Amino acid sequence: MPHRQEPDRVVHGFPHRAAVGASLTALYRRLSPDGVRRWPTSVTAADVALGDHEDLHLGTQRVAGALVRHLRLPEARMVVAFRRMEHAGTVELAPGPEYFVEVNERFRTRRRDIGAVLAHEITHVLLHRLGLRFPRTAENEILTDVVTAYLGAGWLLLDAYREDGVEHQKLGYLTPEEFGYVLAKRAEAFGEDPSPWFTSRVAYEAWVRGRAEAARERTAPPLAAAGRIERGRY
Hints:
Blueprint lengths: L2 E2 L12 H20 L19 H15 L6 E7 L5 E4 L5 E7 L9 H17 L6 H14 L4 H5 L2 E2 L4 E2 L6 H15 L10 H18 L9 H6 L1
Parallel strand pairs: 2-4
Antiparallel strand pairs: 1-3, 3-4, 5-6
């Protein structure tokens, strides 16, 4: 069954706090802390950017390959196609070795965001291979966003958020602030600052709000007196 990214609809704040926490806990339980540390750096902007003059299909395949390698998936062939659809993207989780990803045709003219769409869909493949899932579809989509961000590819999803008089777009199921919160959790765990990567002003502002919420959480009971190791265990 294909998985879909939610259409553009911007909700703010932290309405999925419990699901985000459950997703992080599930990730650590499935991979172990040592397993999570296999992703010490995020995917780079250069690896997932499509040049203006690059062939669309070849470039999309290249970006998909970069994300497959970043997420440490086996070198399964990712077949990517563009078509008209309601959602940003879908992935068909077949037994393999090929995986079929479809991207909304509107991204033919929004090349800078193709990496974000692929990051979410290819993380679905990773979770499928890990056997990591929740009972409800909505929880699984939040899990996918959380894992994408925490393993170093989800900054792309936040950077695809734009909301101004010219453009309106938000990808994924987390709010912009929740993406910022998960990225702040990653920054704390890996000592990595994602702020230089944001090209969207509102995405950067959402990262700042998410970082502030993560900082506030660290000063609230029962974490107020805890060290870094204890906070990680919590």
